[in-house]
Structures are given as C-alpha cells and as structure tokens.
Automatic annotation (TrEMBL):
Protein name: ABC transporter ATP-binding protein
Keyword terms: ATP-binding, Nucleotide-binding
CDD domains according to UniProt: ABC_DR_subfamily_A
Organism for this UniProt entry: Brevundimonas pondensis
Organism ancestry: Bacteria, Pseudomonadati, Pseudomonadota, Alphaproteobacteria, Caulobacterales
Pfam families: ABC_tran (PF00005)
SMART domains reported in the protein's UniProt record: AAA (SM00382)
Residue span(s) of domain ABC transporter: 15-242
GO molecular function: ATP binding
Length: 307
C-alpha cells in the first residue's frame, strides 16, 4: 500500500500516474503506481534493483505502453501525446546507447535540434566545455562516462520544464559526478524545472531532493515530502526490561537492534505518539534522533521489500 501524501493540488503536478501497471509476460514490473510529482520539485525515486524505476520512466515518455492505468506528464496524457511529451522532457536513459557508432558527438547533438525547437546551441557548447566533451569524437569511440556526459548535455540543452534522469551519474568518475551535480543545481536555479531522478546514490542528491518515492517490487510503497520523512522516520534509543521487545503495540518498526537492555529501533510515525506507546509498554526512551536521508530511505526500502 502506498503511504498517502499530504493533500497535493492535482492541477500543479508535473507528473501524475493513475494505477499505472506494467506486466512483462506474467511478471509484474509495476503495480498500480500513483506517482505524484509536484511542479518545481526534485523528486528522488529509490528502490532495489529490478524495483521498476526505469520501467516507470520509460512509460512516462510513452517509449513503452502500460498494461493498464494512465499517466500525465506536464498536463499531457502520455498515450495520446507521446511525441509532445518527449519534446518537453530532458531524458537521461538508463542505458548508454546513443546513436550510430560512426556519428560524431557534434553531429549527434546537432540532430537533437530537430526534436527540440528550444535547443540552445550556446548553452549546449557551454555544457560540453564544463563536462570536457570532445565533440569531434565518434559515438563508437566513447567510454561509458563520456557517453553519459553527452547524454546529460542533450537532456539539459533545450531547457525543458521536466528532467527525467535515470541514474544520471552512472558511469561517471567522482569529479564528473560533482560537476554534473553542480550543473543540475545551476540549471535548477536558472529554469525552476521539475526533476524526477532515479538513483541508488541517495547521499549524492541530499542537497537537492524535496520529494521522495520508494518503489519496491513494482509498488510505490512510500511517497512523501522529504521534510515529512525527516519528521516521522526516527531512531529511538530505549532502555527496557528483559523480554520487552515482544510487549509494545507499535506499528511501522523499520529496524530493530539490541545491546543488552538497550534497544535501538527505527520507527515511522508521530514522535509523540510513538514515545507514549513505548513508555506505556514499560520502555524508557533515552534518545530520539533524526536519520540521514540515505538511512531513512534504506530502512523504507527494506520495509517495502519485506512487506
Ligand atoms: N523489456 C523487458 N522484458 C522483460 N522484463 C523486463 C523488461 N524490462 C524490465 N523488465 C523487468 O521489469 C522489472 C523492473 O525492471 P527495471 O529495469 O524497471 O528496474 P529498476 O528499478 O530500474 O532496476 P535497476 O535499479 O537494477 O536499474 C525487473 O524485474 C526487470 O527484469
């Protein structure tokens, strides 16, 4: 079951999906996903390998069709307006296939202008310089990271209202990762665009993210503003009598560990309510701490995988 988000104005969503499902044969890749990405948000999509993140992004671009359900991207129904949706989106795909091996990067970038009328050649040049791209090289000669750099230029250079980034730093060296984060951050402050980004490197996006979604086995098990997660997913240090761990009536325990009579539990819920329940069951709350975004999301991923 998806954790409900606080009320969101449906009219101001950059992306909305409605019970979006995708089967490959008899195997479920996505199951009744109700994604809500507010306009102007940086929405991080996390989830284990095979959770359905890339499939979801491909469906949003109508590169593949859902088995059931529907999606709207920048207000357009993806099934009827696939080409218009793609023109409004900057997409970094999961894979590294770009184009024919003989084509130079320069020519490949020039061809993007056909698809994107708003292509800004000056901005594309500046991005190529920042990312140290030799545009005279042929696609077949590029390393994985060099390919990724060119894909990032293509995604940003038409200043689309929405970026769909599928593990954008995959293949990049650490310095290039930092440069890409700076570029995306600058791009965001200049354009105010919306970003939906799938990643396994949660800490990398820490400074940017304001919405979080967790996919697990094709289901969106968590969807919440980042601040709401910070306020509700907490680590409780508890001193308790022997055998206490079976006593409390507490739901949404994401993690338990124990050292002697001291317990450390990660619990999702209202802090005051959780603390009261612990106290009522005979436990003494010694400390309550917030988690990093990385730790909170990893606990939520594990809970999603286990449910
Ligand atoms: N073309 C396809 N044919 C059959 N199954 C597919 C296809 N594409 C994806 N799948 C399956 O759908 C599920 C979701 O895959 P997807 O690539 O969307 O996951 P992901 O969350 O992006 O994973 P990762 O983090 O490993 O990139 C997986 O079980 C995968 O095997």
């Amino acid at each position: 079951m998806t954790t409900p988000s606080p009320s969101i104005d449906e009219a101001s969503l950059a992306v909305a999906t409605h019970a979006l499902s995708k089967l490959y044969g008899r195997s479920t890749a996505l199951e009744a996903v109700d994604l809500r990405v507010p306009e102007g948000a940086v929405y991080m999509l996390a989830g284990e390998n095979g959770a359905g993140k890339s499939t979801l992004l491909r469906l949003l671009l109508n590169l593949e069709q859902p088995t059931s359900g529907r999606a709207e991207v920048t207000g357009l129904a993806t099934d009827r307006h696939g080409a218009r949706v793609r023109a409004r989106v900057g997409y970094v795909p999961e894979g590294f296939g770009m184009g024919p091996r003989w084509m130079t990067v320069e020519r490949w970038l020039a061809e993007r202008t056909v698809y994107y009328p708003a292509w800004d050649a000056g901005y594309a040049d500046a991005l190529c310089r920042r990312l140290d791209i030799d545009v005279s090289r042929r696609i077949g000669q590029l390393s994985k990271g060099q390919t990724r750099r060119a894909q990032i230029v293509a995604a940003l250079a038409h200043r689309p209202p929405l970026l769909l980034l599928d593990e954008p730093s995959d293949g990049l060296d650490p310095a290039a990762r930092d440069t890409v984060l700076e570029l995306v951050s600058d791009h965001l402050s200049q354009t105010g665009c919306t970003i939906l980004v799938s990643t396994h490197l949660i800490y990398e996006l820490d400074a940017l993210v304001d919405q979080v979604g967790v996919l697990s086995h094709g289901r969106l098990t968590t969807q919440a503003p980042r601040d709401a997660l910070r306020d509700t997913v907490k680590a409780y240090r508890i001193r308790a009598p022997e055998g206490w761990e079976t006593a409390p009536d507490i739901s949404n325990v994401l993690h338990r560990s124990r050292f002697g009579r001291e317990h450390s539990w990660v619990i999702r819920g209202d802090e005051t309510e959780v603390a009261a329940r612990i106290a009522a069951s005979g436990g003494e709350v010694r400390d309550i701490a917030s988690l990093t975004l990385h730790d909170a999301v990893v606990h939520l991923m594990r809970q999603g995988a286990a449910s």
